[in-house]
Amino acid sequence: MKTNKIYFPIIITMAVAIGLLLGNYLNSFQDSDFLSKNTRKNKLNKLIDFIDREYVDDINTDSIVDLTVNGILENLDPHSVYISKKDLKSVTENMKGDFVGIGVNFYVYKDTVAVIKPIHNGPSDRAGIKAGDRILFADQDQLFDKKFQNDSLFSKLKGEKGSTVLITVFRKTTNEKLKIKVKRDVIPIKSVDIALKVNAEIGYIKINRFAETTYDEFHKALLSLKRQGIKDLVIDLRDNGGGYLEMAVAIADELLKDKELIVKTKNKKGTEDETFATSKGDFEKGKVYVLINENSASASEILAGAIQDNDRGTIVGRRSFGKGLVQREMPLGDGSAVRLTIARYFTPSGRSIQKPYDDKADGYFNEFEKRFQSGELYEADSIKVADSLKFKTKRGRIVYGGGGITPDVFVPFEAKHGEEATLMIMQSGVVSYFVFEQLDKKRTFFNTLDFKKLKAEVIEKDDYLEAFKQYISDSGIILNFSDKEKIKKYLYAEFVKQLFDDNSYYEILLSEDAMIKKVLELN
């Protein structure tokens, strides 16, 4: 009994000691795996809490969180990005393909909201708002003499479907102030800019992005062109930065035969998903031409790659951007979101077209300048491809990976050396604003002109060319205006767009388009 009494405390002590040691070991094991991850997460939360409670000055910790998230994402790839709560709504609307509003194209001209043109058959058009009207009030909200951001202006004009807003406008042509009641409605944000016939047999569809409505818009346009008797099709993906992969796949399915591979994706775990064309398809016969340039990216490259690798059509233009990463938008719980890269995609031949992204700063996205300096915009021979990244199409043609889709038929940049900036200005919104202001000076006169008289006014005279030169010069921009005829053509097209319709605008520009001319040669 005495012996038991002597050793019992020792046994208890040893058990406690072993328990402590084992506990420390287990804690150490957990900290090095699961708990260490929680510690890293808690570290950021604690820091924000410390700043909230203890920092000497008042700080907007939301802005700190935004900076922190952006800082983390900057260490990933260039396409993993943070979307703030403020920006997410407009981004979502843009990709959704519509919003509820009054339906006007406008810009702020001399601190006043000026209507460039009401959307045809939209709420404002039906209510009687006209091009050139100045919007002074939306209900009781004053919209002039204030430095509004566009999103603030939109919020005044948007609302629930079917709701009404009393718009007060000043109409310069009649020098009167009018109150017009507008019933808000769904306003489409088109992703298919235009669908028209280039000639009797060739149809043309221009896609500006891949949004939720893109396939439906494309399919409707395709069927309309088929009813008009087209045999061949041009799909214009120039300056299309991408969007939803599913939309590119759905469009490819209309062009490819049953069971032809469209795209492959591979995620972090190495899991591969393959997407094939189905038996449906409204344009599986007939020639297909896809137009691309240095700003065609992501979903545009998926579509172009599927057409090229299956030998379904001809890719015309210049090497595409080179984005082969797939993102998923993930909500962060506070109205913001992160768009995170979750996979890589591969064309049917197995090539990745993602270009290197060691330079994650502006240099990665500034593709035009780099390609201009290398000479690639003007010479196909300047395109750098690696022999180690050779792949074969379905029929055995050689194609290359490693940075964009290289076209089957190269078309150089349209402007001559030294005139690149001029062409980019002519394709920007600057021309739209200039033309609006010219129309605004004598809108009654311009409203009396038909196409022929308008062409004579803009093309045969130098008045608007000289006015545009002065307009650009007053903005502090120095440009080369040696190609006068091309500049006049862009000005005339914009006059036609604002006075008449989009179809006529595109018909004018496409008649001089170098890639369309190449398609007509090939066809």
TrEMBL record:
It comes from Flavobacterium profundi. Keywords: Hydrolase, Membrane, Protease, Serine protease, Transmembrane, Transmembrane helix. NCBIfam families: prc. The chain crosses the membrane at residues 7-26. Belongs to the peptidase S41A family. Coiled coil: none annotated. This is PDZ domain-containing protein. One of its GO terms (molecular function) is endopeptidase activity. One of its GO terms (biological process) is signal transduction. It holds the Pfam family Peptidase_S41. One of its GO terms (cellular component) is outer membrane-bounded periplasmic space.
